[in-house]
Amino acid sequence: xxxxxxxxxxxxxxxxxxxxxxxxxxxxxxxxxxxxxxxxxxxxxxxxxxxxxxxxxxxxxxxxxxxxxxxxxxxxxxxxxxxxxxxxxxxxxxxxxxxxxxxxxxxxxxxxxxxxxxxxxxxxxxxxxxxxxxxxxxxxxxxxxxxxxxxxxxxxxxxxxxxxxxxxxxxxxxxxxxxxxxxxxxxxxxxxxxxxxxxxxxxxxxxxxxxxxxxxxxxxxxxxxxxxxxxxxxxxxxxxxxxxxxxxxxxxxxxxxxxxxxxxxxxxxxxxxxxxxxx
Length: 279
Prior knowledge:
The protein has two domains: 40-50 and 63-197, no CATH class; 209-278, SH3 type barrels (Roll). The protein contains four helices and 17 strands. The protein has helices spanning 83-92, 169-181, 189-200, 256-260, and strands at residues 2-4, 10-12, 28-29, 72-78, 96-98, 101-109, 113-122, 127-132, 154-157, 159-160, 163-164, 209-212, 221-224, 232-239, 242-249, 253-255, 275-278. The protein has a six-stranded mixed β-sheet with strand order 16-12-13-14-15-17.
């Protein structure tokens, strides 16, 4: 069986290949998509209150079960993947609710475009914390729809011997503060860890070039003999042509190596002391 093409030439239809595969397309890398502000779940500010009094003769540390506004905090169990819905519903009813979450960046592709989108993932799966005053009602937590399902997705209340179990407010406040600071954010955590590392680093390390900014030897420059402690620094300086070891307060020493860059002025090697003076 023959057919004619556009130029009128006879061709055999069976010999014409048919291609069902798609041609390769270029994938375009676009900017990451952050979470919209209206969709972001912010951690509430929880301030621990005063610890409760222990009975006479009781030992141990008193637990903090109320926040600064007088609320007690409880834990609710909810249906899977309804932590956000339950938390928003409780806040609309006037309760203080909190669902700890970590922020991650998930890769996705759409219409030949690749990027990462910001996602908040709950820390404690199927758990939501609620803060209530003593006169707040419990019945809105048990309200059901026409099909007999809980409107907020609540399955139950974490209890002990039939009584709702109190949460430690100080521990809950610590989690909320860390979330607001960004410790649970995938992109902010490395920067915070680097800042903490710098804070924990000694002010002066062995071999670094320093300058004395106060005292009888002000404006003298020298080399640190060892890593500084919280109060003192041991520095080798040149006094009348001799290497002299000085022990002085750490506040009177300026680190020149870190001010100039990444430790280019650091000098390692044995130093032969000739005299030992203490300031």
